[in-house]
């Protein structure tokens, strides 16, 4: 019988091959003809019927396709080719619930089929039906006791907890998931790192940080990848959540010594120091310092620790100094100043420390980001900021051995001046200038931009020029003058400047976005659309950048172009749901359990996007405007929109 079945399968596959080939090549009309030809010979050939339905869907004849699919569905097929064809049909019809129904019917006819049950589980993943996921995974494990199936069931319980009420999650679902995992731990059945990671996730969601630390310190640690300092970091994070400040302090000190440029470690280290100070913690007289070092339980110890890190960087001779210790020193000084602690004098004045940071890192593009963020968060007084900028300017003047700042001789000098110029702009120190002063300054920036192009002459066209920020500063300065005076010639000047700059840096998105905005301001939406196309907006950028062009196109009656962009946007949003489901299925298959909640959250955020709602409504209106020429067409278009006023 097995041999007979194998022969039949081979014959059927050979007969279906022409239909598959036509569908793969996009020749759906020919595929339909081949399916009809085969069905005349074998009228009950279910796989041929399913492929016929697929061809009908792709030809736009959905009503006929649905009827054909129903004929196949009620027969409860169990063979893989037919079910796979039905799955593709239901996916293209956006009816994933019918995929699950088809596999449920199949598993009832053949309950011992592991492959069918596996497909049923994945169909429930598509629908987000976590309860049925759990039931199917348990059935799979009973049929074939494999670890992945067992942990699919546990992960399904965790996902139920994520969407359930807090009381139900914490009192029933998460404890159940924990007990199921602990059963395997006690029986020494855990095999993969993903299983231990899931165990840690369950403990963390229940705020059982003590137990999580025991896992990290116990034999299960061997199954976790020791990539960089991940394990030490997780343990330190759990210690913070447990408010075990002495141990957390030592843990983060050790992490900082291993990676002195990781800012998040300093944040947690300072958090532990502040809490130790507030709780008046003191070490036990009989305690012995561990190899990891002593606990820093007062500001003096923190000052000494950070100072040692800074001193180590000062002794670096290869020029590759790390910014982390210097930024930590600034953060510590800021905290001391907020508390009016006299120990602040041991570090120095804030202006001097910030000026010193500029001297160390002013030639790096990151310096502006660091200083602007630090100054903004510490709420420095305006006179202190002005004093800092004066010190930076004096440093630049001294560099040139003249009374003024001349054009730079190399890239480092240019970056130092560019950092100063950006800080002045960021803190608004040119806003009080008169029109003539601002115009002179803009022309100086343009001159510096053209001069600075020589420092990026050997760069690829896909890389940004180091001097591009001069161009952006000049453009924004001219825009500010236009806002004050209303002189539209300045807008033209900005557009010319940006267009010229793009010839040197064709890939700079900041220049393109600003130029797009300028074209929108003057109503040149054709040019604006060209700039939007050059940005090559894809995927999630439809959500973050799509709004920049659609409204201007609609306002200027570029309806066809707007319809195309809205169509692309809607395709991304509708495709996102399908694509993320495929990623979720991959996560279950390969055991990436920690990524599943992240993907579900991302999918829901994109699905509930405000931009998605706007794009959908605007496209409906455009369809009525562009696609309907009679009452019948209008009625058909509106009915296809499936508008339900009661749903809002």
TrEMBL record:
Keywords attached to this entry: TPR repeat, Transferase
GO molecular function: transferase activity
InterPro entries, sorted: NAA25_NatB_aux_su, TPR-like_helical_dom_sf
Domain of life: Eukaryota
GO cellular component terms listed in the entry, alphabetical order: NatB complex
Keyword Ribosomal protein set for record: no
Family: Belongs to the MDM20/NAA25 family.
Protein name: N-terminal acetyltransferase B complex subunit MDM20 homolog
Organism of origin: Stegodyphus mimosarum
């Amino acid at each position: 019988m097995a041999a007979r079945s194998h022969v039949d399968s081979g014959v059927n596959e050979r007969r279906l091959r022409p239909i598959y080939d036509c569908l793969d090549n996009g020749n759906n009309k020919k595929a339909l003809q081949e399916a009809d030809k085969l069905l005349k010979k074998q009228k009950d050939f279910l796989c041929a019927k399913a492929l016929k339905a697929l061809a009908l869907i792709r030809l736009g004849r959905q009503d006929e396709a649905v009827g054909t699919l129903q004929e196949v569905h009620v027969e409860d097929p169990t063979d893989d080719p037919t079910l796979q064809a039905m799955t593709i049909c239901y996916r293209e019809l956006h009816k994933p619930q019918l995929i699950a129904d088809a596999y449920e019917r199949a598993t009832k006819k053949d309950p011992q089929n592991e492959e069918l049950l596996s497909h049923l589980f994945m169909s429930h993943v598509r629908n987000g039906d976590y309860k049925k996921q759990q039931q199917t995974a348990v059935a799979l494990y009973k049929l074939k006791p494999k670890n992945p199936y067992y942990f699919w069931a546990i992960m399904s319980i965790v996902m139920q907890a994520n969407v359930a009420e807090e009381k139900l999650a914490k009192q029933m679902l998460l404890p159940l998931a924990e007990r199921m995992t602990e059963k395997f731990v006690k029986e020494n059945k855990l095999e993969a790192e993903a299983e231990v990671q899931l165990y840690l996730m369950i403990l963390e969601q229940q705020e059982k940080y003590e137990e999580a630390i025991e896992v990290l310190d116990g034999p299960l640690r061997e199954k976790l990848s020791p990539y960089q300092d991940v394990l030490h970091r997780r343990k330190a994070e759990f210690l913070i959540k447990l408010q075990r400040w002495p141990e957390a302090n030592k843990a983060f000190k050790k992490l900082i010594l291993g990676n002195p440029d990781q800012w998040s470690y300093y944040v947690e280290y300072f958090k532990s120091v502040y809490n130790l100070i507030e709780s008046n913690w003191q070490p036990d007289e009989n305690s012995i310092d561990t190899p990891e070092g002593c606990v820093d339980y007062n500001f003096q110890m923190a000052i000494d620790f950070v100072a040692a890190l800074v001193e180590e960087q000062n002794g670096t001779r290869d020029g590759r100094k790390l910014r982390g210790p210097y930024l930590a020193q600034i953060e510590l000084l800021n905290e001391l100043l907020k508390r009016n602690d006299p120990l602040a004098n041991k570090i120095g004045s804030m202006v001097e420390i910030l000026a010193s940071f500029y001297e160390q890192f002013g030639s790096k593009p990151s310096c502006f980001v660091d200083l602007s963020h630090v100054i903004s968060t510490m709420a420095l007084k305006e006179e202190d900021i002005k004093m800092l900028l004066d010190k930076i300017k004096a440093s630049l003047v001294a560099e040139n051995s003249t009374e003024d700042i001349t054009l730079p001789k190399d890239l480092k000098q240019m970056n130092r001046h560019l950092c100063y110029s950006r800080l002045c702009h960021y803190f608004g120190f040119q806003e009080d200038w008169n029109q003539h002063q601002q115009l002179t300054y803009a022309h100086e920036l343009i001159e510096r931009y053209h001069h600075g192009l020589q420092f990026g002459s050997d760069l690829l066209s896909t890389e940004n020029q180091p001097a591009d920020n001069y161009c952006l500063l000049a453009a924004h300065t001219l825009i500010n003058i236009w806002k004050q005076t209303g002189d539209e010639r300045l807008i033209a000047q900005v557009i010319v400047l940006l267009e010229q700059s793009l010839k040197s840096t064709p890939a700079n998105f900041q220049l393109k976005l600003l130029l797009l905005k300028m074209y929108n301001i003057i109503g040149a939406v054709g040019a604006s659309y060209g700039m939007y196309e050059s940005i090559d907006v894809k995927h999630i950028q439809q959500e973050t950048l799509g709004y920049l062009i659609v409204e201007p196109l609609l306002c200027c009656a570029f309806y066809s172009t707007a319809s195309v962009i809205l169509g692309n946007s809607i395709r991304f949003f509708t495709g996102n749901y399908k694509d993320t489901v495929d990623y979720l299925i991959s996560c279950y298959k390969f055991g990436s359990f920690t990524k599943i909640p992240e993907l579900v959250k991302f999918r829901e955020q994109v699905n509930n996007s405000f931009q998605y709602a706007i794009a959908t409504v605007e496209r409906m209106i455009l369809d009525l405007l562009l696609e309907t020429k009679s009452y019948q067409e209008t009625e058909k278009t509106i009915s296809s929109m499936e508008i339900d006023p009661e749903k809002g």
